[in-house]
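REVIEWER CHECKLIST
Item 1: Sequence provided? yes
Item 2: Single chain? yes
Item 3: Sequence as submitted:
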Amino acid sequence: MDVGRLNLLRELAERGSITEVAKATHRTASGISQQLRKLESEAGLPLTEKVGRGIALTDAGRALARSATDVAIALEKAEAVWDEFRNDPTGTVSLATFPTAGQMLLPGMLKRVAETGGLTVHCSDRDPESEGFPSLTSDFDIVLAHSPKPAAFWNDKNLLAIPLMTEPLDIALPPGHRLADKDFLVPSDLIGEQWIGVPWGYPFERTLNDIFEAAGVPVNFFQRFGDTRVTEALVAAGLGVAVLPCYTAAGAYRDRIVLKNLQGVVAERHIAILMRPDRAERLAVRTVVDALRAEAAAVVEANKHRNPPAA
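Item 4: Structure as written out by the authors:
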């Protein structure tokens, strides 16, 4: 069977429609359909079936799509063996990151990669809800994702998930706040506060809900923002308190925001690398992953004095 056609079937399994496959592969929908018909002829079994106005994979189609993944992994392994023989991690690696991870990790990672030579990393910023990160792996070699749960959270997504770091979440207060002199905070300290929250579905929402549940008080949201820079500006202006990532919070407002560790609830986010298994075999991709892990370790070490004290 033609490897290119197998890959199109795999793309259809992941993207769900010929239209989306055509967009991703820069082809026409009619061209995709023609290639899938040829693959179906080679297979000798129906691979797709009409469902409403679209199509879906048959059992045979799903089985062959899984085989296409195995073929892709085998091909990438063969390519990686040759790259390792030449000791030459060349090529281009695409990476998607949410904004605060980009702020925290990209400068150091890109410097590390530049030292290897011959390798280009194209980075883009994305900030979906937690459930949206896996779909980005269809278009990027590496996806940086965050979740209130450890990397194993992604294991049922047919992806390779590599734990990168665990970042504490702090409570951000304006200077002069009544809690600013405390060594750390507990949920009951925060009763009556006005909050700058996050949109529904964002990872920090779980921590906020845990705080309110532990304190036993109703939520008092003043505003909700996905961009932490907007949240920082409002906290600095004395308009509320917020949950912010410990290592990147208050960069532009270092003298106008007070960060306090929170105890009594789990206040952290887990940052992971998500990849398709086949792309993870590439030496160039593994080189970027190594640089990300080294940079993450350096960030954690540099901020260990800001980590929450042992309870």
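Item 5: Key structural point noted by reviewer: The helical segments are 3-15, 18-25, 29-43, 59-86, 99-114, 204-215, 228-236, 283-302.
Item 6: Recommendation: ____
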